[in-house]
Amino acid sequence: MEQPQAEAYNLLRTALALFQKSPAHLEDAQLQQVRLQASKELQLENRVLNSSEAATVVISEQEVQNAFLEIRNRYDNDGEFLEELYQNRLDEDSLRAALYRQCKVDTVLAVVGSRAPTVSDVEIGIYYHVHTEQFRRPEQREAWHIFISINDDYPENTRTMALARLQQIGAKLQKKPYKFADLALQHSECPTALQGGLLGKVSRGTLYPEIDAVLFTLKEGEISAVVESEIGFHLVLCKHIQKPEILSLQKATPKIRQLMDDRAKRVCQRAWLAGLAKEADDRH
């Protein structure tokens, strides 16, 4: 891949990573920052690709195709996709070449990372006892609701009518609480109506304060009286209560092992990259 094309791809990738915009839509200061970062990354990639480890790495056409399709599928049609490439001084061929390069760099770094020492059970145990707070799970409640908004532009949604409508639904639920999901689907004005009013498992402080305060006083399976929030009226169902707990070492081990393995790999990769940089400096 020619250097100008590699620079164009790195510039685009860095702009999207830093600012979620293509270079053409950046302010001057942002563009300067992107160019500096992209230049550093390009130099680093060149060192990786010139390493002895890179000589043993083979990238298949399928890997490149998968990476290509992942980008292509972000666009609605080929015209939009090709126009975006053109605006960033790329075309399909140069993009594939850039993706081949990126796949090779990633694979080389994965190979280097695989040299990291295996994390021992003792190290995992030490991490667990030093960072116990990370494994503390707060109480969670499976919350459902039926929502009616207040909107004076609609007669049925004036404050008085909205409250009366929800009170009627609440009266039905007092007799037939198992009808909650059906009544939510029929009457709730929240998109969650399609899931029977399911808000999901929530911790304290997640929902509107008025709903939160009521939800965490309910018993499992209990339905609240009408609750008013800043957006309207709600009936709240607490379907299940998950009590607070601290994950045991056994349950926490897979998460800790993954975290420590990833950290060890990054340390190994950084040391290797620093060695490449030193070799480059020595040659000069």
TrEMBL record:
Residues 138-240 form the PpiC domain. The keyword Ribosomal protein does not apply. InterPro entries: Nitrogen_fix_NifM (IPR014282), PPIase_dom_sf (IPR046357), PPIase_PpiC (IPR000297), PPIase_PpiC_CS (IPR023058), PrsA_foldase (IPR050245), Trigger_fact/SurA_dom_sf (IPR027304). It catalyses: [protein]-peptidylproline (omega=180) = [protein]-peptidylproline (omega=0). Pfam families: Rotamase. Keywords: Isomerase, Rotamase. The keyword Isomerase applies. One of its GO terms (molecular function) is peptidyl-prolyl cis-trans isomerase activity. It is an enzyme of class 5 (isomerase). Its EC number is 5.2.1.8. Belongs to the PpiC/parvulin rotamase family. This is peptidylprolyl isomerase. It comes from Methylovulum psychrotolerans.
